[in-house]
């Protein structure tokens, strides 16, 4: 089974409209929505009208551009963003001094999604994948049993052994507590290669026997144009027939 998901729904009007275009043209299956962003309110209304499947795209680092941002959220979000963006390795370290900041930033976005979409999120992932930082994994805030995005899938030689071991251990823990796909790939580096069709062969073939998620960002013009291309139309139509 192949799941094609678009991130950053609600980020701004252009991104929202591009995602909806891809959905209407059957180039993707679902999206992940941001809250407290410039187009969050309109995006939610359109998703409910069209039946677009939506999960929560947790934002711990990108500037929140919504018109009515609570002061406490702004301050706590700035704290999580500063910490995560300061050093790459901070994602692997639990910071007890920022526990309240992470917990509050998560909870408010969860509640805002529930308000906008009329139900709690059934699926969670994170902007820049920060939903898998240690402060989130060890917080106990993410409800057990929901769908949570796993780490990117890499094979031998693509990352160093220590990196792959860490990702493997985290994914094992995720699988014990949440619903996860068997593999996860980002389309963005794939469709910028010399042969997108060739690069997509592995995840597409894997989806015949496993559940595979492929991520893309229609807010990026290159991603958007590739998804509307005849090449992608042929790929996704063949997969959907299976």
* Low-pLDDT windows of residues: none
How many domains in all? Answer: 1
Query: What is the distance, rounded to the nearest whole angstrom, between the alpha carbons of the first and last residues?
Result: 9 Å
The helix/strand order is EHEHEHHEHEHEHHEHH
- Mean model confidence by pLDDT: 92
Largest sheet: 7 strands, parallel
Q: Compute the CA-based radius of gyration.
A: 18 Å
CATH architecture label name: Alpha-Beta Barrel
* Beta-strand percent range: 5-15%
- By helix and strand content, what is the structural category? alpha/beta
The number of distinct helices, counting runs of at least 4 residues, comes to 10
Topology-level CATH name: TIM Barrel
Fraction of residues in helix = 40-55%
The CATH class turns out to be Alpha Beta
Shape: globular
CATH superfamily: Glycoside hydrolase/deacetylase
Characteristic key phrases:
globular, TIM Barrel, alpha/beta, 242 residues
Question: How would you describe what is shown here?
Answer:
This protein has 242 residues and is α/β, with parallel strands linked by helices. It has a single domain (2-241), classed as TIM Barrel, CATH 3.20.20. The chain is 47% helix and 13% strand. The protein has ten helices and seven strands. It has a seven-stranded parallel sheet with strand order 5-4-3-2-1-7-6. β4 (123-126), α5 and β5 (147-148) form a beta-alpha-beta unit. α3 packs across α4 (99-117). The radius of gyration is 18 Å and the shape is globular. The mean pLDDT is 92.
């Amino acid at each position: 089974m192949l799941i094609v998901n678009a991130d950053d729904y609600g980020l701004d009007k252009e991104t929202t409209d591009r995602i909806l275009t891809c959905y209407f043209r059957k180039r993707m299956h679902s999206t992940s929505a941001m809250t407290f962003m410039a187009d969050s309110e309109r995006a939610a209304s359109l998703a409910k009208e069209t039946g677009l499947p939506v999960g929560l795209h947790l934002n711990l680092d990108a500037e929140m551009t919504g018109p009515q941002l609570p002061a406490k959220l702004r301050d706590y979000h700035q704290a999580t963003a500063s910490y995560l963006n300061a050093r790459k390795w901070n994602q692997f370290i639990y910071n007890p001094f920022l526990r309240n900041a992470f917990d509050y930033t998560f909870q408010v976005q969860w509640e805002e999604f529930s308000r906008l979409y009329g139900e709690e999120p059934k699926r969670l992932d994170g902007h820049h994948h920060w939903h898998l930082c240690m402060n989130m994994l060890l917080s106990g805030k993410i409800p057990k049993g929901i769908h949570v995005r796993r780490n990117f899938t890499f094979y031998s030689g693509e990352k160093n052994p220590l990196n792959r071991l860490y990702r493997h251990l985290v994914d094992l823990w995720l699988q014990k507590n949440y619903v996860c796909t068997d593999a996860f790939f980002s389309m963005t580096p794939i469709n910028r290669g010399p042969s997108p069709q060739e690069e997509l062969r592995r995840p597409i073939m894997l989806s015949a026997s496993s559940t595979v998620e492929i991520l893309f960002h229609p807010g990026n013009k290159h991603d958007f144009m590739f998804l509307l291309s005849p090449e992608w139309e042929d790929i996704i139509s063949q997969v959907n027939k299976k």
